[in-house]
């Protein structure tokens, strides 16, 4: 009587962990998915706007005292922020309210454009946020010296926002360092927004070339 054939050796399969995309890669994929089709005229208009923003960015890089045509709007939003936050009755928050309200408004604009799937406009809003940091930088550095001209709303006393913010925190001695850091943050934000806008235009152009006809 023959013995039964030996059972086959068990097969083992080594499971390798799947490599998940990095957070920047996932963000880029999400943005690319929301770009959508764009007409040739739309791409040209965005490219022209990008050139204008690049020119303003260059001016900011070369001249720390440069103020663009958007400085007036920035000032209005800044002073409105003081009026909004003064109702909290907290002096420090009132002083910081100008910059906070300004950034909140820009964030709201960015979210609105995100919902409209206009990602290039989101990059422009990010660029706008960079100007807030750049314009705040010299005033932060001026907290101790207080030689820069100040603006206020109404007939009340004129106070220095950054002195009111840094002095209670014990950071007044670092005003120039904070000012330099804000300027670097602002310039980095401008360059990041420009890079994002240029990348989006490239994606739009590639998408248009793969379509059967331009819109």
Compact description:
With 215 residues, the chain is an all-alpha fold. The chain is built from seven helices and no strands. Helix 2 packs antiparallel against helix 7 and helix 4 packs across helix 6.
Q: Using only CA atoms, what is the Rg?
A: 26 Å
Give the total of beta strands.
Answer: 0
For the biggest sheet, the summary is: none
Helix coverage percent: 55-70%
Topology as a string of helices (H) and strands (E): HHHHHHH
**Total DSSP helices:** 7
Alpha-carbon distance between the two ends: 81 Å
The number of distinct structural domains comes to: 1
- Helix/strand/pairing class, anyone? mainly alpha
Beta fraction: under 5%
Quaternary organisation: single chain
Q: What do the pLDDT scores average to?
A: 86
What is the 3D shape?
elongated
User: What are the low-pLDDT stretches, counting only 5+ consecutive residues below 50?
Assistant: none
Write a structural description.
The protein has one domain (39-207). The chain is built from seven helices and no strands. It has helices at 23-33, 40-62, 71-85, 91-115, 119-141, 161-169, 175-210. By secondary structure, the protein is mainly α. The chain crosses the membrane at residues 90-113, 120-141, 177-201. Residues 1-22 are annotated as: Disordered. Keywords: Membrane, Transmembrane, Transmembrane helix.
Secondary structure elements and their pairing?
Elements: H1 23-33, H2 40-62, H3 71-85, H4 91-115, H5 119-141, H6 161-169, H7 175-210
Helix pairs in contact: 2-5, 2-7, 3-4, 4-5, 4-6, 5-7
Keywords: Membrane, Transmembrane, Transmembrane helix
Transmembrane segments: 90-113, 120-141, 177-201
Region (Disordered): 1-22
